[in-house]
Amino acid sequence: MVVTLSDLDVADVSGMIAAAVALIQIVIPLALPVILVSVLKEDRTKATTVSAVSWSVIGQFLHSSRWPTLLFADSASIRGVPGHIVLITRLKTILAFLTAIAAVITPLGLYQTIVEDDEWTENVSFHYIQDQSDFGRGTPPRVNLPWSRICGFSEPVECPNSFSNITKSSNATGDFYEVHSYDSHVPQYVIDVFQSGLQNMQGSVSSIFDIQSRSYIWNTASESPNGTVPDNGRPYPVDSFRMISSNILADDYLAVEGLVVDMKNGGIGFRNHSAPPRTPYGSTWSEDLLFIEPESVCVDTNLTLDFSLPRFASEKPRFSEIAHLVLTDRGGFANLDLPYPNYSTTNTQRNPQLWDRAYKGAWMNNALSMLFFNVTNLGDAKGPDSRPSTYVGRQFPLMSENGSISPSYPSSTHFNQLRVTVTYGDYLSGVGLKDNISLNFTFLNTTHFAGGGSLYENPFNISWHDMFNARILCVGNAGQNDANLDNFVAECGMVYGAPIRTDSNSSSIVFEPGSHWSIPMYSCIMTVKATIKKVTFKFNGTDDLSALKITEIKDKVYPDEKSKPLWGVERSDKKLVDVNPLWGLISSPDQGNISLYVLQQESLYLPGYPLGPFSSLGGYDNLPGSEFYSKGVSTIFGLSSALTLNGLDIPDYSGEISLALLRRWQRLSRTAGSTGKILNLIWTDLASNAVVGTRGLHGAIAQGSSSLESRDIMSASASNTPAVKFMQRRVRYHWPYAIPAFIVLFLTTVIAIVSLVITLIGRAGTSRIRRFLNKTSQGRILITYLYGRKGETAAQVRPESRVRTRSSTRRWVENMGKTPVTVAEGYNDFLIINGPQAAQAQPLLQENPMT
After folding, report:
1. Rounded to two decimals, what is the model's pTM?
2. What backbone phi and psi angles, to 5 degrees, belong to 326?
3. Could you report the per-residue pLDDT of 100-125, keeping only the tens digit for each?
4. Among residues 256, 265, 142, which one has the least CA distance to residue 688?
5. Which of 121, 224, 376, 646 suits a disulfide with 388, CB 3.0-4.6 Å?
6. How far apart are CA 625 and CA 799, in angstroms?
7. CB 260 within 8 A of CB 535
8. In this predicted structure, what is the pLDDT of residue 389?
9. Spatial CA neighbour of 811 closest among 835, 833, 793
10. Which residue spans within 448-515 are E strands per DSSP?
11. Residue 647's pLDDT is what?
């Protein structure tokens, strides 16, 4: 890879400069001795004559360079030298080497970053920021859009706390209703109750009445589901659904018009987006937001659908693109616990027992399938300890060898996908499952009917109705249950994971001819809850929504029980099928004329019943905060029926079209624990297209300033805005780059401490060092050798006087240091030393001083 100047940062340049300096520090000490040696004159005998003091200076300069080490000179020798002297003298070289490395590496750890300035925190005014993405362009404006509420599924029903007037009468022929007036409006005092709890929250927290449908239409009396005439025939708004954009492949926190979307774990937070004033480096802050998030739990049935792909077109079965489709018992039959599972349906808000519900669905699916295959009779006299007449690994064919019986799953062309269905046991369709035959579940005793025309006789006449009851038993309630706190929105069904190749270790998404595949099956329950989360934002860049980033979403932590949210749910005598109760944050349990269920805890499982999916044709009213979450659940469990449902054109969430999505589903559907995340992410993607939040931290917006800005806005109090931390540029450091510098610093500190201690105890000092400097001065040694005591190195040193100590060098230079000394190289590397009138002088022309 070629590195250009544009790839370098400040740290890289600093390191390069330090490397250049280190190189200079190596080159110059090597080059200058070369120059010095070149100016020293030698005669024909290689003799050089300079003054004695010059020899001291030349020796110090040459031996303090790198040349003694490079040339293995005497001063760099370790032979015959005591170890402690070698260690101390070598430390200089080691430290020099480490210092050079540290000088180059240490600057590389420097970098500049933008960080929070803890000293610059302010409460500032927020302003609206526009979403210029597809979500912003696809969200229609609305101003003072009224709420509308219609209750009753198959008959007219007055909504709780409404001003409608309906009279019911009964006789032998049935029930009759007379609608005197039907008011779709939600009274203001009802709205006030479910917004009262916001006064105890940050101004950023929304209520149920801060949730609006992203798309809406206007309805008239003729569109009413039960023939009533709401509002005397005047048009009223109803929610609608239009898919704007899908973010199903995004593994991130997203900000879209009116929402914070958690595509990491699932969930949407309601916020009409605003931001503080722009600054050069941006700002950051945290807000409490109302979140509605799905919660899905799956249980492995320990059954798989296994199949292969034909090698040649001639091998394809008549009705299918796959061959040898079998149901494989991975322990779901052989290891089934025979005691009939139960769970409690009381106090479900604090203990929803979602795993127990999903397990009951899986148990019913497996038990009914075992009866269908006649591998056990769960109602015989063997008792609870009886074991099934099957084994792990047994396979049950779901198609004939010639393909004459069409399998229900996968369909002839839709085998390469993830599939979600509300129907348990639908893999038995076409191989003998009965239609509309009831099964007594008391002890799972059945009446025998003769089966025929199928792969299996189905001796216990297991029917679709029986399988549907498995769903009811998993959900725990039905439409005729009371609309109360314990009956929250839930849906159960089967999730068929993305196919996994079994004849290869690779997680392939290429369906090769002759390959073998396996599809895991899970029983899943899905519900939805409201909670408060703390969201951290960062704003920097352009003055629109693209500059707003969500850096963290986490559950709000409460110091004690009293500080937890107080949730209220509308109390009535209605059935789930007739009314979706209102819910929200309330200020106190006593709310005057409105009767409530009250609960104080971190979250609230939302009440209601999944009556149907989203529809682009429009709903029956405009109160999305009490309905959209259940519609999302219904839509997910109806995805397997068709991609277009009730006029609803939704993306392909199966992965059949998107290979990237199929690969993601392959990874997540390998285990029951991660399969629930698939449902959560699909729900989040649908919900982000269905609703929008209207509460923001900015003030009232001038009408007409912007079509997107002109929506119903619930503004927060200016004094209730969060503290904003503004960002500043700071220099930071990657500490691993400082390791060489730390080593040098450590060694330097140790050496400094040791030298200080030695000095304090009198083992060393300036006078002692001076003595050894004079003793090792080459010029003094030469003069002493040549002239005896006249040049003795220590003769004139007086350590008690600094001035005299200094003058001793001057006196020596004046007396003996200027004396010319000739040094030549003799036989066998011996030195020949000569000086004028010196008694110890050696003849320069001596052939061998040893003879």
Report:
1. 0.77
2. -135, 155
3. 788 778 888 888 787 777 766 777 88
4. 256
5. 376
6. 95
7. yes
8. 78
9. 793
10. 490-496, 500-501
11. 54
Cα–Cα dist 498/655, whole Å? 8
pLDDT digits (tens, 9 = 90+) for 462-504: 888 888 899 999 999 888 888 999 999 999 999 999 999 998 7
pLDDT given for residue 191 in this prediction: 93
Between the alpha carbon of residue 178 and those of residues 153, 168, 172, 229, 232, the distances in Å are 16, 6, 17, 11, 14
Mean confidence (pLDDT) of the chain: 80
Q: Where are the domains of the chain?
A: 1-34+57-113+739-758, 296-524, 814-851
The closest alpha carbon to 574, from 190, 150, 184, belongs to 150
Residue-wise burial string across 489-502, b where 16 or more C-beta atoms lie within 10 A, e elsewhere = bbbbbbbbbbbbbe
Do 207 and 584 touch, CB atoms closer than 8 A?
A: yes
Give yes or no for a cis peptide into 520 (omega within 30° of 0).
no
Q: Where does the pLDDT of residue 411 fall: very low under 50, low under 70, confident under 90, or very high at 90 and above? A: very low
3-state secondary structure of 262: strand
Extended strands (E) in 594-751: 596-600, 603-605, 644-645, 648-649, 691-693, 695-696, 714-715, 724-733
Q: How far apart are CA 813 and CA 803, in angstroms?
A: 16
Please provide the DSSP assignment of 790-830 as one string: GG-TTTT--TT-HHHHHHHHHHHIIIIITSEEEEEE-GGG-
Taking only the tens place, the pLDDT of each residue in 718-772 is 456 788 888 888 888 888 888 888 888 888 888 888 888 887 887 777 776 677 6
Contact assessment for residue 157 and residue 166, using Cβ atoms and an 8 Å cutoff: yes
Q: Which are the contacts of 128, defined by CB distance < 8 A and separation ≥ 6? A: 272, 273, 274, 696, 698, 701, 706, 709
- Higher model confidence: residue 26 or residue 635? 635
What b/e readout covers 226-253, taking b as 16+ CB neighbours within 10 angstroms?
bebebbeeeebbbbbbbbbebbbeeeeb
Contact 418, 678 (CB under 8 A): yes
- Label residue 506 by pLDDT band (50, 70, 90): low
Estimate the share of the chain in helix, then strand, then coil, as percent rounded to the nearest 5: 30, 25, 45
- pLDDT tens for each residue of 165-187: 888 777 777 777 788 888 888 99
Q: Which two tokens stand for residue 411?
A: 């369909």
Q: Residue 429 burial (CB < 10 Å; 0-12/13-18/19+)?
A: middle
Rounded alpha-carbon distances, angstroms, from residue 642 to 170, 286, 392, 635, 650: 41, 42, 35, 11, 10
Question: Does the pLDDT of residue 84 top 60, yes or no?
Answer: yes
Strands 516-539 and 548-555: antiparallel
Worst-scoring range by mean pLDDT, 62-76, 687-701, 724-738, 753-767? 62-76
Cα distances from 410 to residues 220, 236, 323, 402, in angstroms, run 43, 44, 11, 17
What are the DSSP calls for 412-439, one per residue? SS--SS-EEES-TTGGGTTTT-BSS---
Torsion of Cα atoms, 812 then 818 then 820 then 822, to 10°: 60
CA angle 17, 22, 23 (to 5 degrees): 95
